[in-house]
Amino acid sequence: MALLPENIIDRLVQMERRIQALSTAVNTRPPLNEIRPIPPENPPPNPPTPKPVLRVFDAYNHELFADDIATGGLARPWLQLMPPVDHVNVAKWPSTTSTSFTAIAMSFNPVWQPKMRLSMYTKASSGATGQVKVMVDGQPFGPTVNAGQVFDYTGLLPVDLPNKFGKVMTVEIHAVVTSASGTVYAQPVSMYGTQT
Questions:
Q1: CATH 2.60.120.260: which residues of the chain?
Q2: Following CA atoms 116, 117, 123, 124 in sequence, which dihedral angle do they give, to the nearest 10 degrees?
Q3: Residue 110 to residues 66, 87, 158, 192, Cα–Cα distance (Å)
Q4: pLDDT tens-digit readout, 132-161
Q5: Smallest Cα–Cα separation from 118: which of 169, 157, 162, 87?
Q6: Disordered: where is this region (predicted)?
Q7: pLDDT at position 7, please?
Q8: Measured between alpha carbons, how far is 126 from 120 in angstroms, rounded to an integer?
Q9: Which residues pair with 132 in a beta bridge?
C-alpha cells in the first residue's frame, strides 16, 4: 500500500516522540564517574567481592598511581610522613659548632613528584651567627638562610626525574657557625612533594 502524505501536525508529533526517545536513552545510562571492573556475563551464585585494579602510568612507563587491592586505599605513590619532633625545645634540635658547613640532619625519601616543599626553623645560640642550607643528592635546594630565619622553600628537585622516579633521594641539612664561636640549630617541620 502506498504511503499517504502526512500533514505537518503528524510529522511534528512523530519528531517529538523521537526526541523524547533520544533524551530518555541518554538520561538512563549510568554516570561515568567511577571506574569498576566489568561484571561477568553469568556471575557465580556467591560471587567474590570485586576488587578493582587501577593503575596509571606516565610516558616513561612509571607507575604513577595504583590502588591497594588487598585492603583498599592508596598503594602508590607512597606518601612521606614526617616523624614527630620537638620543635619547641631548641636544645634537642640538630646542631653544629663547626665553622665549615656540616651535615646535621639527613633523610632518605622516594622521588614521586618533580617539586618539593621543605620548611624548617633555624636558630643560633646567644651571640652567635650562622647559616643553614639544604642539599638534595649533593646539590643545593633553595636558598642559604641566616640562622634565626625560617627556611621555607618550594622548588624543583635537582634530580633527573625520569631516571630517579621511585628511587630514593638523600635530603641533608647543612649548617655552619660564621661567628667566632657558638651553635647553629635547624629543625625541619614540614616536607612533602608537589606537582610542577
A1: 90-194
A2: 30
A3: 16, 24, 14, 11
A4: 999 999 999 999 999 999 999 999 999 998
A5: 157
A6: 30-50
A7: 83
A8: 19
A9: 145, 175
- Render the burial of 144-153: b for 16+ CB within 10 Å, e for the rest: ebebeeebee
- Secondary structure of residue 70 in the 3-state scheme: coil
State whether residue 26 is helix, strand or coil: helix
As given in the structure block, the three cell numbers for residue 49 are 567481592
Give dist(CA 36, CA 12) in Å, integer: 42
Protein fold of 90-194: Jelly Rolls (2.60.120)
Q: What is the tens place of the pLDDT at every residue in 28-48?
A: 655 555 555 566 676 666 655
Q: How far is CA 88 from CA 9, 13, 23, 85, 183, in A?
A: 83, 78, 64, 9, 17
> What is the pTM (predicted TM-score) of this model?
0.68
